[in-house]
User: Fold Phosphatidylinositol-glycan biosynthesis class W protein from Anopheles gambiae.
Amino acid sequence: MDPADYRALHESQMENNNGTTAVNVFMHIAPPVFSVFHTVQLIAVASITHVPLRFLVEFCLIVLPFVLLVTVLHRLALNIALTLFVLSAISAVHQIRNRLHLMPFVQVPGKSPQFLTCVRALVNLTTAVCILAVDFHCFPRELAKTETFGYGLMDIGVGLYVFSNGIVYKVRPAEERRLNTARVWKVLISTAPLLLLGFGRFFLTNELDYQLHVSEYGVHWNFFITLACVKFAGTLTMDLVHDPEVIKFVAITLLCCHEMMLHLGVSRYVLSADTQRTTFFAANREGIVSLPGYLALFLASIYIGWVVRPTEEITVAKKFLRRAGKVAIMAAVCWKMIYVCEDMFGISRRLANMGYCFWILAIGASVTALFMFFELFVYFVRFEEPKSPDQIMKTDDFCIPYVPLVLQAINANGLFFFLIANLLTGLVNLVFQTFLLGNGAALTIIGYYMFMLCVAVCFLYVNNVKLKIW
Assistant:
């Protein structure tokens, strides 16, 4: 097909999409969580320590099934999710039924919770698969980004990145929070790499005449610039708030103000096809107007991270379980709020409105709670004897490294993983007219692409190489 005609076809495939349902989107997110559960079980039982073999097992049980789930098996997402849930529940009950008397003595390490590694790596993994898969005909159109309102699997990408950055934000002690010129400059420098990536992406796509849909963020704006602005504003906001408990009220207040401004006419201005992109603000209105919503999402995620991340060396099982239960309750409240907001405001990624923020928090909190229950399960079934803080400091075997190698590697070099995924996605789209390929060719390309990505980050992780640019 002629390149100009193909570009028109590609852009038309991304337009006028009203999405699917919130439950259907979550049914595509939940199966990888249960896949991790069963993969960890298998590796533990089979005592697989050989790194290449372990990598292949994890790749075949975690990565490839997700590739199939969002392409040729998407119609079976609900059945697959329910089946994996039932199998996981049966397996868990079978292993803990004779150990309930040990519950008061089970201990979980307090620092560097591994469930956060799983959450962040899973966000990166799902995004990497979807950004390429969406360019093939086998990816269902209802899961692509929505035009204005609705639920799409591709809509949750930027939101979950904001969430995953928020839950690992380290709240500084009150005495260290001094907001002055030096602090502002330091925060600006820390966000500079993301800004540079954003500018680089704009110039690269512009030079290559790469197909883009301006209604996503605008003409010049993109994912990296949004993340940079949210990180900058969120960090300075946290320096002003001295009590982490207060941050949830700040997030709610900001979200309500954002929704009110949208209803006062801002949303009509942003979504109107008659609004010309003649000025910088008008050209990038989606990216700029959505910033307060993403900032509120970031602050709410910081609060969730503060709730789940313990400060003590040892966390007893009951206390850890209460934290997981609290996050599960937060998730349930957010799921309820989704449908309240849907009736009142709608769900819009372009606006990052109240409904969208609650949707992302519902997914993020649900996945976090599931991995917290999984971590507690791991320490419960492998419990040996109680340890004191002094004993833990003197031994290295208290922390059970259950996280799959692939997820550890992705989390260790998350930004590098995402950048390489974007570059390879662009390369594939420049070499192939992806929408014209059949299912077999599409699955081969996506599978090979994910294999190369996972091999690259695992090689770096095994060799203790961590690439950071700030």
